[in-house]
Structure formats: structure tokens, C-alpha cells
Write a structure and sequence with these properties.
The complex is a heterodimer of chains A (99) and B (155). Chain A is of the alpha/beta class. Chain A contains 3 helices and 5 strands. The longest helix of chain A has 16 residues. Chain A is globular. Chain B has a single domain, classed as Mannitol-specific EII, Chain A. The radius of gyration of chain B is 14 Å and the shape is globular. Classes of the chains: A alpha/beta (99), B alpha/beta (155).
Chain lengths: 99, 155
């Protein structure tokens, strides 16, 4: 399946990037494609394209602070799994809870 | 870590391998913030410690796998830097309402200004590496600062 995710955290450095790696790892282990957009102190990195969002089977929001440009995901609300970066880091497979 | 000089931000004098376990987080922060001041990364160890403590109030920096990454951002950070200590034995680390056994601690000093994107990139890359098992193994097995740095560069 195709997984996309957005990570963000309070300071924009530590959890944002750890959570992104954790999500990519767990997807790789389970044979899923994965793209993660990081919204951190360095701005938006690896920004998801409209096509990524449209084709995604699972959308993971792992954020402590508001997600910028969240309106992009509005039509796909039912695919969103909402969590926190800290939770994903401790237990990455949590992102598949709804599947 | 292509093209990134980790050794620029993770200095020898801020790496402590095989130290005696700390009594608690507070003691660890005292010791490590002074190292940041001595190495010229922060102008005032107390102010930096306050910033670290503030971040602790926002949520846990205990990350599981015996790892903690306390981090602080304040104007007293002159340039972004990383401190690391590996304890001989785990100690109980309480953070943001959670607690767990911690052996490996990365302390990150994050500056307010954005002119240091290069350094922030290193901190971000390092944070990402913590999610990888082979990096954790390196932290356990490195026998010297040089081995740690070259091991990280080869990951």
C-alpha cells in the first residue's frame, strides 16, 4: 500500500526527524511505499505532491504543532490516522492501527 | 551522512563514553550544560539548562531504547551543537510525565537564528539516525570518540 505522512514537533528538530525515519522504517519492513513530509525548523521538506496525497492508502499525521497547508488533505479525511511523533517513535506499527 | 561534518557539532570534549550513571536527569543536565559552555557553544550554562527544562515541560524527551534527547533552544546558544554521553549502567530518566531507563543521552543545543541551517541539518540528521538499530549498536560498541565519528560517517 501507499503510505504518506507528515511529521512536526515543538522544536522542529528532534521528534520531527526521528518520527519520519521511524515511519519510513516500518513501512519498508512491511513492504509499503512511503513518503514523509517533514515540517520542522528547516521549513517544509520533501513536500507531498497532490498526486501523492490522491493516491495514498494511508495518511499519517504525527504532529505536536499545527500542520501547515492541512487543507490539502481535506478530501481524504477518512484515510487520516492521527498520532503524535513521540508515539510513532516508541511504537512505529501504531500507524497501521486502523488497517 | 554525506557532506556533513558531524565532528563540527559533536566535539570530542562534549562526548563522554562510559561515565558513571547519573542520579537523575537534573544532575546529568548540570554536567552536560557546563560542557557546552566550556566548549563555547552556549554563553551561559544556566540559561541553556533553563531552555532544556522548558522543553521537558512540553513533552517527553525519553525515546525508548535507552535513549533520551533533551534539547533546548535559546538566545544563549551561540552555535548549534550536540553533546553525547554513554553511561556504564542505565539510570531512571523522568521526562514529561514518562520515565524509563536511559543509557545514551544526546543533548542538542539549537540556536534561535536561522543562519545555521547547515548545523540544524546535522542535528536533524542525527535525530533521524536514532530510529535505526545499527546506529544504536554503534553507540553501544564505539570504544572511542574517533570510532564513534567514523562509524556514524560510514552508516
Amino acid at each position: 500500500m501507499k503510505v504518506i505522512a507528515i511529521t512536526s514537533c515543538a522544536t522542529g528538530i528532534a521528534h520531527t526527524y526521528m518520527a519520519a525515519e521511524a515511519i519510513m522504517n516500518i513501512c519498508k519492513q512491511n513492504g509499503h511505499q512511503c513518503k514523509v513530509e517533514k515540517q520542522g525548523a528547516l521549513g517544509i521538506e520533501d513536500k507531498l505532491k497532490a498526486r501523492d496525497i490522491k493516491e495514498a492508502d494511508l495518511i499519517v499525521f504525527a504532529n505536536d504543532v499545527g500542520i501547515s497547508k492541512a487543507e490539502r488533505f481535506k478530501p481524504y479525511k477518512d484515510k487520516i490516522f492521527q498520532t503524535k511523533p513521540h508515539e510513532v517513535i516508541k511504537n512505529p506499527s501504531i500507524i497501521f492501527s486502523n488497517n | 551522512m554525506n557532506n556533513i561534518k558531524l565532528a563540527d557539532v559533536l566535539l570530542n570534549e562534549m562526548v563522554v563514553l562510559d561515565c558513571e550513571p547519573f542520579t537523575d536527569k537534573n544532575e546529568m543536565l548540570d554536567v552536560m550544560t557546563h560542557k557546552f559552555e566550556d566548549a563555547g557553544f552556549v554563553s551561559n550554562a544556566k540559561a541553556f539548562k533553563k531552555a532544556l527544562e522548558y522543553r521537558e515541560t512540553l513533552g517527553p524527551t525519553y525515546m525508548g531504547n535507552f535513549v533520551a534527547i533533551p534539547h533546548g533552544k535559546c538566545k544563549e546558544v551561540l552555535k548549534p551543537g550536540i553533546g553525547f554521553c554513554r553511561c556504564k549502567k542505565p539510570f531512571i530518566y523522568e521526562s514529561g510525565g514518562e520515565s524509563g531507563e536511559v543509557k545514551y543521552i544526546f543533548i542538542l543545543a539549537i540556536s534561535n537564528n536561522q543562519e545555521n541551517d547547515y548545523h540544524l541539518r546535522i542535528l536533524a540528521t542525527l535525530a533521524g539516525m536514532l530510529a535505526h538499530q545499527n546506529f544504536l549498536e554503534l553507540l553501544e560498541n564505539a570504544s572511542s570518540y574517533e570510532e564513534l565519528i567514523s562509524g556514524i560517517n560510514n552508516l
